Every structure is written in structure tokens, then in C-alpha cells.
């Protein structure tokens, strides 16, 4: 990576008071200083803001920061101003937009925050032409991708604006993007492939545990009893947040609740109470946690299935920012998946493949008998060790079944049918159920037709999820399956595949019914 101009180190020390850069900050800032378009993928807490704040101070002109949330912008401006940086925003919530525009034109701002819908207006574009822009920072850049978990059409309007200033470096930032989303962000924002900088996603001090739910309230109150320190419990609804908080309080632990239905003053009060407390349990909907700065959260509990692996990673990532040992627990029910699948029936058709892939990845995570951390990190494109030693499955390996032979059959069937069909079709081929489509393609003539007996048929879907989770199968954009980079080792008999014993699965499903 390019060496940073000395001014950047001076700014780090003098303005921010930090002795050294962390992780990939230096690499990101180096590219921006050299005028190169960049996508920085860094986990929450890694210090993304500094990556554009330092170039904003070191380069002539004003940095335009595009950010989707007014509340987050105002937080950022408050802390930037406290550090002596000249920062302002132009939003519907600001009354002094004309004065801000004048200050921008006069070169009196280091940072100017705007929402994407304003950034793409003709008025703002002509303002940009009359001022000097040092860089474009596009925060929460996954919003530009339909593959991301938070697609915002306004982000799609940014490209023409950026293209009018080809010499101004673009810095896209996000904490959450799987491989597909990443590639899409690069393409949508016109950033070259070599502009992607990924910081390590591992949070080694967080211990992950995922369990099926039977009596969620009892499981959670018991768990919380054993935990020291402050923690967050994410509940799927406002009502459940209130009920769980009451149950935890009854069990003798200090608890509060937080959701978007509370009066703003009350929300601010419970949030401040939680930040100050060393023992409070905050039961909340996912509205809670964004932008709160509490490094000593000792545990995060999910009372139901999170929305995606990205959301799970981000929400559990609020534990242990101080680096001390922390725990992340999830209780999921088959009913959570049923509800999510039902909801899939309502999404627009073009979003369906992405939503399906998201749900399958979650299923793979919760059902896997193997290391949770390895699954998470692989999801984010890393190549972790197969076992971390600090998750439930590493610490107490579940009963597993060697499904290597079945995996070979499944992978062969995916390969021989042309790597474009979904599991439904492949399952029929393997179990020898013919239909029109199978006959018309000649798949009933393949050597893999009917090679899986009825006893093993029920293992095919959980096995598929495991294979996807381990990179042995990949889901195509159209919902088909193709061999993944790790398939070769299985086909050559060099890698074993284990899945949880079926009796365990059945018991789990029976226990979770209605949960
Ligand atoms: P992100 O946006 O990636 O979640 P932030 O930009 O909010 O992270 O930074 C997280 C915290 O880390 C902030 O308190 C920030 O001041 C601090 N921080 C950032 N860079 C450094 C550094 N080089 N050294 C020490 N602390 C840092
Ligand atoms: Zn592990």
C-alpha cells in the first residue's frame, strides 16, 4: 500500500488524539489520498469514519458524505465538531441549509453530510460545481445494492453525480456485504475491483451459541441469570420486548425495554440508563443499538431469528467492543423460518433470489453442527480455520453423521444436471422421481438418477444448506445450485462432510413447534 503523507499521521495524533492507525485504516486512507476509488468493508467499530475524516482534512476542498440517516449524521457532526473539524449537514431537519451552502462554496467546510436523495438533485449538483470537492464518501454503501440487506433506490441516483466529477475519489464504506453485494457495490459505484479493501471480521472475544427455542422466556431468563454485566436481548416484537423485560425483572435481574413505540424522551432516558449501567439487561427491538457507544456490553441474546447473517453479525457485534470475553446467544424456532418464508411470498420477484439466499444462509448457520465462527467468516469471504474453539459447536460438538458419501452423490447430481437447477429438481433426480421437466432434459437417464434411498432423502436439504455454508455448493442468482470452490475436495474424497444426526433434528422440530 502507498505510504501516507505525513500530514495524515499528524492529523491522527493532533486532531483525533490516537497514536496509531488501526487495521486497514492506513490502506484505505492511502488510496483516497492518492485519488483512487475505494470500497472499504470494515466491521462495526473498526473506525470507518476516520477513513474519510482524515482525507477530508488533508485534501483541499470539502468532503461530501452521503449517509442515509439524519440521526447518524447529527451524531457524526457532533463528534467531528468536538474534534475541531468544520462539519455540517444539509437535510430536511436543518434550518440553516442556505448558510451551509454558502459556507461550502466559500471553502469553509471540511465535511458536508447529505442524504442520497438530496445529493442527486439538480440544485445540489450545481452547488457541487461551484465549490471544491475533496472526496465523496458513501456511507452504508450496501444500500446501493439490491443484494444488500437494506436496498435504497436513492443510492442508485448517485452514480451520475459521481461521474460528473471523475477526478474526485469515491470512498464507499460498509460494515456488511457478502461477496455478491460487494461485487455489486463496486459495479454500481464505478469502483475498480482492486479498490476493495476488506478488514478482518473476526471478533475473537465473542463466544457464539445458537440453540433451538422451546420455552423462549424460560430459556432467556435462565441464561440472563447466569450472565454478569450489561447485555442486550433482541426481541422480535414490541410486545415481546415488554413481556420479556417483565419476566427478567421478576426473575430478579435489572431490566428495561426499548422500542420505536416509546416516547422519544423515554427512549433517550432508558438508553442513557443502559449506557451508564454495568448490570442492566436491555430488552429491545432491533431499533436499539445503532449509534450507541457502550464498549462493555457483555452479552447479546436473540430471542428469535435475526433478519440475515449480516444483521446477526452487526447485532452480536455490539457485545464486547472493549475486547473482553463476551457472549452471543440465539434462540430460533422452526416457526421463525416458516414466517420468513411466508413473507418471501410478498417480496417483489426481482428481490426473491437475494431474499432466498439470505434465508438459506441463516438456516445453514443455525443448523450447522460445525464451527459458527467459521461459517460467519466464510460468509464474509474470509478463509478461517475450520474450528475456533470459542463457539458452542467447537466447545461441545453435537452428535453428527458422516454425510460425505451422500454429499458426493448430491454434488455429482448438481454437476451432471448442468449446475443450474434448484434443490427441488436435484432431489427428484437423486431419489428417482420422474416428472416432465426431468424427462425432457433426459435427467432420468443420468447415472445419478435414483441413487439416494428413501432413508437418506430427508437429509438432502439440511445437507444442501451445510454444503452451501461450507462453500461446496453455491446458489446462483436464479436460485439454482452450482459447485462451489470447495466441492473438489469432497468429490475427490479429501474432505469429510458432517451434519447433525436426524433424530436430533426431529426432536428439535417437535420441541420448537409453536415456539
Ligand atoms: P465504525 O463507523 O467503523 O463502526 P467508528 O468510526 O464509529 O467505527 O469508530 C469506532 C471507535 O473507534 C470510535 O470511538 C473511534 O473514535 C475509535 N477509533 C477509530 N480509529 C481509531 C484509532 N486509529 N485508534 C483508536 N481508536 C480509534
Ligand atoms: Zn467455533
Automatic annotation (TrEMBL):
Entries under InterPro entries matching the protein: DEAD/DEAH_box_helicase_dom, DNA_helicase_ATP-dep_RecQ, DNA_helicase_ATP-dep_RecQ_bac, Helicase_ATP-bd, Helicase_C-like, HRDC-like_sf, HRDC_dom, HRDC_dom_sf
Major enzyme class: isomerase
Record-linked SMART domains: DEXDc (SM00487), HELICc (SM00490), HRDC (SM00341), RQC (SM00956)
EC number: 5.6.2.4
PROSITE patterns tied to this protein: HELICASE_ATP_BIND_1 (PS51192), HELICASE_CTER (PS51194), HRDC (PS50967)
UniProt keyword Ubl conjugation present: no
UniProt catalytic activity: Couples ATP hydrolysis with the unwinding of duplex DNA by translocating in the 3'-5' direction
A single MF term (Gene Ontology): 3'-5' DNA helicase activity
One BP annotation, GO: DNA repair
Keyword Metal-binding carried by entry: yes
Cofactor(s) needed by this chain: Mg(2+); Zn(2+)
CDD domains assigned: DEXHc_RecQ, SF2_C_RecQ
NCBIfam families, per the entry: recQ, recQ_fam
Entry protein name: DNA helicase RecQ
Amino acid at each position: 500500500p502507498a505510504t501516507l503523507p505525513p500530514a495524515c499521521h499528524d492529523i491522527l495524533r493532533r486532531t483525533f488524539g490516537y497514536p496509531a492507525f488501526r487495521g486497514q485504516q492506513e490502506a484505505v486512507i492511502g488510496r483516497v489520498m492518492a485519488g483512487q476509488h475505494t470500497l472499504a468493508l470494515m466491521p462495526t467499530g473498526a473506525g470507518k469514519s476516520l477513513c474519510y475524516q482524515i482525507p477530508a482534512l488533508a485534501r483541499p476542498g470539502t468532503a461530501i458524505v452521503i449517509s442515509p440517516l439524519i440521526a447518524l449524521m447529527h451524531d457524526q457532526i457532533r463528534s467531528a465538531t468536538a474534534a475541531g473539524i468544520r462539519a455540517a449537514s444539509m437535510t430536511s431537519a436543518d434550518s440553516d441549509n442556505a448558510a451551509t451552502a454558502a459556507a461550502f462554496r466559500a471553502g469553509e467546510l471540511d465535511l458536508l453530510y447529505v442524504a442520497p436523495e438530496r445529493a442527486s438533485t439538480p440544485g445540489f449538483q450545481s452547488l457541487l460545481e461551484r465549490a471544491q470537492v475533496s472526496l465523496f464518501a458513501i456511507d452504508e454503501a450496501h444500500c446501493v445494492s439490491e443484494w444488500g440487506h437494506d436496498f435504497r433506490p436513492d443510492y442508485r441516483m448517485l452514480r451520475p453525480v459521481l461521474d460528473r466529477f471523475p477526478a474526485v475519489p469515491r470512498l464507499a464504506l460498509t460494515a456488511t456485504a457478502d461477496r455478491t453485494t460487494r461485487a455489486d457495490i463496486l459495479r454500481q459505484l464505478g469502483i475498480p475491483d482492486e479498490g476493495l479493501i476488506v478488514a478482518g471480521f473476526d471478533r475473537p472475544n465473542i463466544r457464539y451459541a445458537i440453540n433451538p427455542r422451546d420455552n423462549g422466556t424460560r430459556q432467556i431468563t435462565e441464561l440472563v441469570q447466569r450472565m454478569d454485566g450489561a447485555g442486550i436481548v433482541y426481541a422480535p416484537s414490541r410486545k415481546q420486548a415488554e413481556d420479556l423485560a417483565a419476566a427478567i425483572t421478576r426473575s430478579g435481574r435489572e431490566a428495561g425495554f426499548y422500542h420505536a413505540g416509546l416516547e422519544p424522551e423515554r427512549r433517550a432516558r432508558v438508553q442513557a440508563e443502559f449506557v451508564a449501567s454495568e448490570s442492566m439487561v436491555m430488552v429491545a427491538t432491533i431499533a436499539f443499538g445503532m449509534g450507541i457507544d457502550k464498549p462493555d456490553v457483555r452479552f447479546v441474546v436473540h430471542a428469535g431469528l435475526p433478519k440475515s447473517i449480516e444483521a446477526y453479525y452487526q447485532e452480536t457485534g455490539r457485545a464486547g467492543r472493549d475486547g473482553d470475553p463476551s457472549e452471543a446467544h440465539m434462540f430460533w424456532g422452526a416457526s421463525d423460518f416458516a414466517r420468513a418464508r411466508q413473507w418471501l411470498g410478498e417480496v417483489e420477484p426481482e428481490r426473491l433470489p437475494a431474499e432466498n439466499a439470505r434465508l438459506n444462509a441463516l438456516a445453514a448457520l443455525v443448523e450447522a453442527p460445525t464451527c459458527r465462527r467459521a461459517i460467519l467468516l466464510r460468509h464474509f469471504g474470509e478463509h478461517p480455520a475450520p474450528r475456533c474453539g470459542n463457539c458452542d459447536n467447537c466447545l461441545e460438538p453435537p452428535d453428527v453423521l458422516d454425510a460425505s458419501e451422500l454429499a458426493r452423490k448430491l454434488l455429482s447430481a448438481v454437476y451432471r444436471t448442468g449446475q443450474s437447477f434448484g434443490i427441488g429438481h436435484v432431489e427428484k433426480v437423486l431419489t428417482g422421481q420422474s416428472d416432465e421437466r426431468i424427462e425432457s432434459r433426459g435427467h432420468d437417464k443420468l447415472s445419478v438418477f435414483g441413487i439416494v434411498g428413501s432413508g437418506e432423502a430427508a437429509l438432502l436439504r439440511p445437507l444442501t444448506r451445510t454444503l452451501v455454508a461450507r462453500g461446496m455448493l453455491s446458489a446462483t442468482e436464479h436460485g439454482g445450485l452450482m459447485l462451489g470452490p470447495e466441492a473438489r475436495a469432497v468429490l475427490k474424497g479429501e474432505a469429510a462432510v458432517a451434519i447433525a444426526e436426524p433424530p436430533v433434528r426431529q426432536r428439535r422440530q417437535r420441541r420448537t413447534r409453536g415456539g
